[in-house]
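Take a look at the protein record below and tell me what you see:
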Amino acid sequence: MKFSTLTKAVAGGVAFSALMAGAAFADAALVYDGGGKFDKSFNEAAYNGAEMFKAAGGAYQDLEISGDAMREQAIRQFASRGNNPIVMPGFSWETALKTVAPEFPDTKFTIIDTVVDLPNVQSVVFKEQEGSYLVGILAAMKSESGKIGVVPAFNFDLLEAFACGYAQGAKSVKPDIQVLETYVGTGFEAFNDPGKATEVAKSQLDQGVDVVFQVAGGAGAGVLQAAADAGKFGIGVDSNQNHLHPGSVLTSMVKRVDVATYNAMKGVEDGTWKPGVIVLGLAEDGVGAAFDDNNASLITDDMKAAVEKATADIISGAVTVHDFRTDKACPSL
């Protein structure tokens, strides 16, 4: 039984153990966060990175969990069978990893989007505020109403870093622009609620917003759909989502979760994997605004030039984008 073909595990220790038994375990492992493998966003980017590793000759197994109760069990089972590294995209894995990693000191774990300070853990985090600054510039330049929106899944520091960077970028172009922020829900389950995300986006559009940035993972598909239905513009997140509604998705704030996943797996294979914190920003090509054929008709030369200048200024240090996480405050929201 090839474990990489398994995409949904059932809850419960006996059933889960039976599912794991009999597979060949000497490979990397990838355990997706809530929203599932094909969320067209964060998890799918991790999957794409694992597929890059596979295309380069590597092998991996993957698993979609059906709830938070499976987190510890999933990574413990992988570790006990020798999978190495075990890659976990998403800050929701932090608690489970802090419990399990010390039990398997010889196993290498890579967690994406938060920091876990343990000797066998590699933490990959991003400067989301920098990439969001760029898409904020594009939003402000595209907006005709003077109102733009951002829809995070819920009130969480990481998601606020996106929203704050977006607002700073927009106000660097138009200081008087209004930035509306509305949450999909109140907790992690909001990432799985595209219906509610659609409602939230519609409420912003009804208030005159004509560009809206989704920061809600899989639920964000509802935001992009609402914008397209209203003849307005959406902005994707994590993966390049420009293709979802060509001509309506203005751009996407791409986070190279695929590269982080690939590098973790490849690093163990070639012996270069190291514990500690890896930070990916514009200078490391870890974040950015997506340009392709799907949004080419929406982006003017002036818009692209503004993004290029801001990118250069941020990398050189001429512009510093405030990170909400440093003081739980945003000067532009």
Remarks:
- DSSP finds eleven helices and twelve strands in the chain.
- The radius of gyration is 20 Å.
